[in-house]
Design a protein that fits this description.
- By secondary structure, the protein is mainly alpha-helical.
- Helix content is 78%, strand content 0%.
- It has one domain.
- Helix 1 (2-16) crosses helix 2 (18-29), helix 3 (36-48) packs antiparallel against helix 4 and helix 3 (36-48) packs across helix 10 (141-166).
- The radius of gyration is 19 Å and the shape is globular.
Length: 212
């Protein structure tokens, strides 16, 4: 199944170039399980071959992610949480999304604030459906768009460069993506710990000042 999906992605990009990249990356952010880990590195390989432009590929990927994310954001914004959970229970298996993953994304958003819309774009799994809780929380749509585009731009640039660097051996990096994801998650956890420690220290200073 994965091999068929990979080949379909490759064929679409080879025949439609930027249009294919846009379609695939938009669908990924619209909760359709199309791995950007295939789309963007293969596009990077085509850049190395001189068939595509690096920065256009990255920009198209980021813009497509934003468009798809706005669709998921609208879903969360206009539907009630119980309806969303019911839809996930019924149809989540078709888009590789389960209730626990959605609730985890929602907890992250409520706990760490709007910056999660940016950092989640650099995380596996969560990056594809963080838009739902953002819409549910009625996050400012301009901030959401800015954070989403910025995070997606960095993600697209990293994956495209990997494909460009490895050239025709771009698919050889697939076994290493899991380790790559672990590194990203670890870095994210370190940032969260630092942020919470900094925030708690700041609140303590305010309280001490107020007590005086």
């Amino acid at each position: 199944m994965l091999e068929f999906l990979s080949q379909s992605i490759i064929n679409l990009i080879e025949t439609t170039h930027y249009y294919g990249i846009f379609i695939l990356m938009a669908l990924e952010s619209a909760l359709i399980p199309i791995p950007s880990e295939i789309t963007m590195p293969f596009s990077g390989y085509l850049v190395e071959q001189g068939k595509l432009s690096f920065w256009i590929v990255v920009s198209v990927g980021a813009l497509a992610n934003l468009v798809g994310s706005l669709g998921a954001y609208a879903l969360g914004y206009y539907l009630e949480e119980n309806i969303i959970l019911d839809l996930i229970k019924r149809y989540g298996k078709f888009i590789l999304l389960n209730e626990s993953e959605y609730l985890k994304a929602l907890r992250w958003f409520r706990k760490y604030g709007q910056s999660v819309a940016f950092f989640s774009r650099l995380l596996p799994a969560v990056r594809t459906f963080i838009s739902l809780p953002a819409g549910l929380a009625a996050m400012n749509i301009w901030k959401f768009s800015f954070y989403t585009f910025l995070g997606s731009f960095l993600w697209s640039a990293a994956l495209t460069y990997v494909g460009f660097y490895f050239g025709s051996n771009w698919n050889a990096i697939e076994p290493y993506f899991q380790k790559f994801h672990i590194v990203i998650v670890a870095a994210f956890i370190v940032f969260v710990v630092w942020y919470l420690n900094h925030k708690l220290h700041f609140l303590k200073k305010i309280r001490k000042g107020g007590a005086r």
